[in-house]
Amino acid sequence: xxxxxxxxxxxxxxxxxxxxxxxxxxxxxxxxxxxxxxWERYHLIQDALRNRxxxxxxxxxxxxxxxxxxGDGDTFxxxxxxxxxxxLKPVAGTAIAASVAAAMxxxxxxxxxxxxxxxxxxxxxxAAPAGDQYRRVAGTRWDVERPRVGDHLNQYLVNHNxxxxxxxxxxxxxxxxxxxxxxxxxxx
Length: 188
Description:
Elements: H1 2-13, H2 19-31, H3 33-49, H4 61-72, H5 88-108, H6 147-166
Helix pairs in contact: 1-3, 2-3
């Protein structure tokens, strides 16, 4: 009988004792302090085998902790704690939402040109030098049959410039001289 109890304690220390046997073993340990002391020794042996012993073992430490806990008495108050005022929860939620919104405004602000500065979509035509060494490139205005398409392309370039300025990217339109559109290409 004693060997079986020792095997159960050993299995419990190793984490291999089934639940149904554990309940019985705990009931026996409550009534027999020698079994509880054996369980402590088994843990000490396990810690020694795994090299997890503390630098200094203080005998009776667990007993002193248990006595201190028992002497503390009831640590919980019998009167319920007063809750927060009812108005505080919605106010706190609104304050948190406002803080997040303010942080997003600060983070998402454009870092390029201020909004009041005009966005240049195309530059004015440049006059050729007197020697006509350079060939004139097509005009800087959209040459489309439908003005709606020209407006759409202009809006596209404006949006691109704003996005590029906001995210620290180079604006391509400063280097673009000619943008073309073939009205027959989309008819297929």
